[in-house]
Amino acid sequence: MSQDAPQSTGLRRIWPYVAVAVLTFVTLMGTINAGEHQPGRDADALAIAITLICPLSLLLLRRYPITVLGVVLALTLVYMARGYPYGPVIASVGIALIGNIVQGNRIVAWVGGGIMYAGLIVTIHVVRDEPWSWPAAFGVAAWMLLILVVGEFVRVRVERSAVSRRARAETERRKANEERLRIARELHDVVAHHMSLINVQAGVALHLIDREPERVAPALETIKTSSKEALGDLRSLIDLLREHDEAAPRQPLTRFRSLESLIERSAHAGLTVSQHVTGTERPLPSAVETAAHRIIQEAITNVVRHADADRASIDLDYGADMLTLRIDDNGDVDADRIAWGNGLRGMQERASTLGGTLQVTRAPAGGVRVTVTLRTDDR
Fold it and tell me: What pTM was estimated for this model as a whole?
């Protein structure tokens, strides 16, 4: 891929020069050959100059489309008015007309086509004094109209291609933004939860090291366990990000049903967490389980960090096509004054991605209740 891209770029750069060189050669040889087969219409130095200037000027068509069209039209009409042999010199006019249409100068091109047609009729029947011929007049008109129609067709194709490229680019940008948000959520969930527990336990250890040193060991053990799990989750996330061309892993980073370790770590941090299940427990899509686990983890982390609570509950309600999560605490945080930081925003984004909702209200016990609904029917 990396080797093909420079080659295609090089071809795009040189093909206009190759095309113009071929057109110049064909125009020159065609004009000389036509002069040999049309008595009295020899191509002199001016005719040769015109047959060279017209195709060569097309190299500037992209930068100066209207100017190039005017030059080619004028030189071609001069060529015809001086009685030079009929030949491929008019091809440059056709290309200049098509180029202007493609670049958006449609009115200029159609007016230029009309001027060219009128100029040809005048030079043929007035300047050259050739007899009037309706078939010839209609034939010239048909060719001129065909050139303009081809230009319009090419313009439509080019515009559609540009729209398609922009749509693909926008899709890629959107996917990249979604991927960045997903990575940010994963990193926040992994780091914030474990680091919060580590911070709490480190504070406990510092507080007890001189007073009750026998209670320091459990705190250090919790720090060790949390840091080990954090490193494992980070490695799993990094491995997942590295798998660009490989199939996605069959199992998500975490499963929400394995909440025992989360509850145990919370207990070491001074928060007693209970779990309740209603409805028929069943396997769920991995995306739902991962989102549910991360949301529960973030909610419990917020309780540990901000709520000053000693009890929390996790309720899992299995509906027909919906999983409802309720995380309550008995802390002293006012639900109406909670600031929506990265954690709550990440929880809401996870729920929205699965067609669900997130609400933060006052819990019956006086703390905060986080209610999340997640669709489980893969719709």
Answer: 0.53
